[in-house]
Amino acid sequence: MKAFPDSSVFDPLDPATESGHLDAPPRVGFFTDTSLCIGCKACEVACNEWNEVPGGDRRLLGSSYDNTGALGANAWRHVVFIEQRVTTEGPSEPVEPAFPSLSGTDGGGGGIDFRWLMSSDVCKHCTHAACLDVCPTGSLFRTKFGTVVVQDDICNGCGYCIPACPYGVIDQREGDGRAWKCTLCYDRLEADLEPACAKACPTDSIQFGELDDLRARAAARVEHLHDAGIGQALLYGEDPEDGVGGSAAFFLLLDRPEVYGLPPDPVVTTRDLPAMWRRAGAAAATMAVGTVIAFLGHRR
Amino acid sequence: MTGRRQRAEQAMVPDAEFTSYYGRPVVKKPVWKWDIAAYFFTGGLMAGSSLLAAGADLTGNRRLRRAGRLSAAASLGASTFFLIHDLGRPGRFANMLRVLKPTSPMSVGSWILAGYGPAAGFAAASEVSGRAARLGRAAGFVAGAMAPPIASYTAVLAADTAVPAWHDAYRQLPFLFVGSAAAASGGLAMVLVPPGDAAPVRRLALFGAAADLAAAASMERSIGLSAEPYREGTAGTLSRWARRLTAAGALGATMSRRSRPVAVASGLALLGGSMCTRFAVFHAGLQSAADPKYTVIPQRRRIDAGRPIQAG
Questions:
Q1: What average pLDDT does the segment B129-145 reach?
Q2: Interface test with A, best of B19, B40, B177, B287 (most A CBs within 10 A)
Q3: Among the four A220, B140, B173, B287, which has the fewest Cβ within 10 Å?
């Protein structure tokens, strides 16, 4: 049973149709295959150029070759860059960057003792999008492509979408006050063009397409990698049964999601909203009863 | 709460191993400035004050009615300022009433405020001018009826986010917030109204303080790792002061029947306690968003236990 008639809170569905786009085209998205990412950041540059994202000041973070840091108002694509030592027990936690040695640390030669993981992160365009649910002005809306977009002429900078996102994607732009994030190149989709990041990606790590095709392609790719002995390969965000109802942007990862800065089991916060309203109603009733009791017997 | 009890509770939540992307946060810290914590306080104050004014009106307590209506109007003014000032685009505040969305507590809250504000404002204007007394009375009752939702919806506003210390406390926060609202408004009325007229005020303040302390204790016990930010750093300091001031104010209220100075001091303690409660919740949220462990550890545990959250 749906908690709210006009908004998708927690049932599997086609979000565009559910939002009233009756002749919606097939839902589109990104399959980001991180096993193909070379960390070139062409996606970040292409995105910033096409969407006129200011980009902000990029500093060396000192933790890895990443100098963007996180997704935000001025970074709609973010290439994470992880350096791990690899031992016989598997990969380590991310470590500080060093000059890697191609021979084993024991001096015995043979064997690579480190690996780099790279992944281009982006807005997930969730099936159950918390940012869209909590937006009080209707600035955030669902397009006919099933994507989630901010209307910058309506956003009043209330900031509610920012802590609502379980992935920390959307943020407020300093000096501007409004919230900004990936639009999945809404303007390019309208013109039958693929998004700028996917267009610019030289290795096809970022693949754009219809979601059903992408899911089939991803399933085949992960099976291929498992057969090739890369047992750690896993799909993240492709499951329509997960806590956000599956995302339009999903990933093939080579380690656990949290290594890439992704939440391992994200949930749309509005899943619990009906329960929250019930608790708030009970608390309000308690306050009303408390006041009545406070005044009883005091009529003068 | 004693140090010993705290240690025992911390031991129940051992530091777990977890992985993150170079210690960087997963969820974004709210960009809300201290205005929002201040609004939690002034919003509670106006709600409780309108309830006191309506009750006083029904029981013929004119001094308390006047104090309640004026307090409500003053905190309504402050609330309006804080809410608009916090916007990234303050000039677009009217967009809050562009749609009505049940999935957005901020939208629901804006509409409740749009109903409450004029009513509370009219009741206060009628009180000051002495005109339109019957309409003022009706407006006062409308404001009183809308006051409990005003006091509790702000808890949903905070809880309906991915911020661990807020979301995980969604069962307790509404009770903490209405308790804090009752204690604060009772405290303010104890300052403004002579003890002889303040018997219901003292009872409301005691009820509020008890609800506040009980909800805080329940949160501490039942929200697991997300209780930790409420004990640490700025939020921890504010939580401890909230408990001390609220308990002291409540104790003082029971002894203030004949002494105006005791009533004033107790009232100020209750106001301070409520303010500390609101800022403690605010800072606990910021702290829990800034450290990835509060996001990653509970989610990783769900997966490792084979019980990830599933849609449907």
A1: 97
A2: B19
A3: A220
